[in-house]
Write a structure and sequence with these properties.
Blueprint (H helix, E strand, L loop, with lengths): L17 H14 L3 H20 L6 H12 L6 H8 L8
Helix pairs in contact: 1-2
Pfam families: TacA1
Keywords: DNA-binding, Repressor, Toxin-antitoxin system, Transcription, Transcription regulation
Protein name: DUF1778 domain-containing protein
Length: 94
């Protein structure tokens, strides 16, 4: 009996206002992507963000104690960040 291959892709369709399609098409064109690729990547990124926001972070009691101690302790300057904050922005006058 011949085996059928499992589908690796599943169709997804949606109805969008013409203005939304035009915006998506313009953005996709600017990225050099197809509408499908652009929308798929945007949807997957949005889904990943939601899942990461709701994912519980698990750590040992000792790890949590170290984490809270680091947050409660005095701030430690990071030289790269200090330099970045002190740097004049390109649009600021000299």
């Amino acid at each position: 009996m011949p085996r059928t291959a499992d589908r690796k892709e599943h169709p997804l369709s949606m109805r969008l206002p013409e203005a939304d399609i035009a915006m998506i098409d313009r953005a996709a064109m600017l990225r050099g992507r197809s509408r499908t690729d652009f929308v798929r990547d945007a949807a997957v990124r949005a889904a990943e963000e939601v899942l990461l926001e709701t994912r519980p972070i698990r750590m040992s009691a000792a790890g949590f104690a170290a984490f809270t101690a680091a947050l409660s302790g005095p701030p430690v300057p990071v030289s790269e960040m200090v330099g970045l904050v002190r740097r004049r922005a390109p649009w600021e006058p000299g």
